[in-house]
Amino acid sequence: MTKSSKKFIAPQLLFMLLMAAVPLPAFSMEASGPETVVTAPAEKKVQSLSSKRLKSSDTAELLSGEPGVAFATGGGVSSLPVVRGQADDRVLIYVDCMCLTSACANHMNPPLSYIAAANVSGIGVSAGVTPVSYGGDNIGGIIHVDSDQPLFANPGEQVTAGGSVSSYYRSNNRAIGGAFSGTVANSNLSFGVTGAIDHASNYKDGHGNTVTSTYYESRNLGATLALRGDSSLLTLKAGHQFIPDQGFVNQWMDMLENNASFINLHYKSDFAWGKLDATAYWQNTWHRMNSGEDKLPINLRIPVTMPDMPMATRGIDTGYSLKTDIPFAEKNILRLGNEFHRFSLNDWWPPISTTLGTMGPDTFLNINDGSRDRYAFFAEWESKWNSKVTTIFGVRNEQVRMDAGDVQGYNAQNMAGMIVTNYKRDSEAFNAEDHARSDSNWDVTALARYEITPTGTVEVGYARKTRSPNLYERYAWSTMWMASGMVNWFGDGNGYVGNLDLSPEVAHTLSISADWHDSERKSWELRVTPYYTYVNDYIGVQVYNTQTWTWPGGSETRKILKFVNQDARIYGLDISGKLALWENSALGSGQLRGSLGYVHGTDPNTGSSLYHMMPLNGHLTLEQNVKGWSNAVELQLVGRKSETDPLRFEPETAGFALVNLRTSYKWNNLQIDLGVTNLFDKFYYLPLGGINYDNFLDSKLPPTTKRAADFEPLAGQGRSFNVGLTQTF
Fold this sequence. Notes:
By secondary structure, the protein is mainly beta. The protein has a single domain, classed as Maltoporin, Chain A, CATH 2.40.170. It has helices at 3-6, 10-19, 49-55, 421-431, 471-475, 481-484, 693-697; strands at residues 69-75, 78-83, 86-87, 91-95, 98-99, 120-127, 141-147, 160-170, 175-185, 189-200, 203-204, 210-211, 216-228, 232-246, 254-271, 274-290, 311-328, 332-349, 364-384, 389-403, 437-453, 456-467, 495-497, 505-517, 524-551, 554-584, 588-602, 617-626, 629-638, 656-667, 670-677, 720-728. It has a 22-stranded antiparallel β-barrel. A 4-stranded mixed beta sheet has the order 5-4-7-6, with no helix packed on it. Strand 9 (175-185) and strand 10 (189-200) form a beta hairpin. The longest helix is centred in the middle third of the chain and has 11 residues, at 421-431. The chain is globular.
């Protein structure tokens, strides 16, 4: 595309203004005052965390049912949230104010996998137009996750103690797990511990077939020490995660081990001049991949179906943030901030001894001494002009500096002593280049909120948001199929090659959103949010080469794709609402909640669909609360996925409807949760599930009778009976 065609001209601006949408956080972000724009009311907190924990151990799925949110399938505790058609690194994720990065060529350890669902006290998402104080280096949205906050004794009490224990069981994949938390504290000092373990076998689809490589196990331990002053809070958190096994059915590899430890220091205080919020953190991750047990022949347990290919990474996240809120001129707030984040990565594949010697004798260096540093500064002005109008204007600059060392391939020699030249050719070409890259990224946000009536509000906004490439998008260097196929966080079975010359993505979003509700937001509410985003230099792909497998009666082709800059256009509609149906002494209260989402993303040059666009989908929940009981019927509707990315062989999927039932009873400090997911055992394919790679391997047959199969979409989980128990004390 020519430079002139990338410019935003007045007709485009007008059109996007009419089509855009302002984001709505799913929970109330901490604000300096009630005037803050896009601060959701209390009713907008993510509902029923306990019921969502009962259905899944995946922390990302605590956002299920939220408008504009979908999930790209990964492991059982490691799905990737998709916010309005944009996923993975396009969505910035904070876990207890720590900005974390996936340290894996397949992104098997995304940020949300580092906190157990049982330890989450609050989670929310802001999409599209977000204040610059929320964060940068994203174009899709921001997710904030908080663990349990420190507890203190009431003034005058000597020492108090409390905690909880919980457990669950899910029948479909025989998932079982438990969690505990405990705190001892006085009015100024608090010490708490948490722990969680989750384990599951492979799940079965609606036809009763086992979907292999969907097993998982995860263990998390944490401790919190907190000190409270009159107007300040200092919190020190530390923890460790160990994942000994996690299958990935839509990937060539599985996770064999993930060890991560972190330290997080957080301080916030009120002063005469305003507020200060400061965080410093460090996380160290060791990660190993290889072919898991389901990708090996069951009778031999040796690497015949998928070759033995050990892969290891070490990633370190280090950073800090300083944020201030300074009130001035009565109803005005100035927010200033400075942030730093450094991610360092080493990704190496140890050599192995093979007959042909194709994976040795040298260690394959995929990313060698990779680093990605972000230095950010922002300023934001919030003003309450009168009783009806509030505005926010903010500017953010991020200096992103990336580098990586020289690399090498296996440099294997075949039996004739000939050096395999492809690895050497690619590594020498990469090493001859200057690897250092610097980006200066500017974000601008302008928001306005107008309260038309006490029961109606309109929010309008514009954002320019920028994201630099990740380390793999820039530095993954090998064009060989075996190596490029290991760089894939899309679940599509293709191979990916980096590009040193990538430019940052720049997204322009304009927005308008309308919210109607009763005066107390208790009886009814309706929010309609269309949105439109145009992305310059969107990081897409182009074909570099192909890989074809053949067998008697058929063949299958995948592509080696190179990351390149393109343009992208994304627009859609989110609708959410609630309606109180009844309230009386006999039946308690009844409420109907619902959401509807549609997103459409295309490459404006080719007209083809962007990858992993969620089809039209909706959630409807009828909930009753009476005395200690909470009962609900949930309906999930997903339309046919016909808009797919042909370049990546993205499969089409049929529409489906799922019915879930749940009930819970709370008596004193004991809560029992019961539920049935996929009540009618419906068979369906996941629209963002990618391909079933295990079926292609057909790994349950011995090598002599193994038959190859076409890639097919990934089937979802069949009916499951779930039970949970929580005791607080």
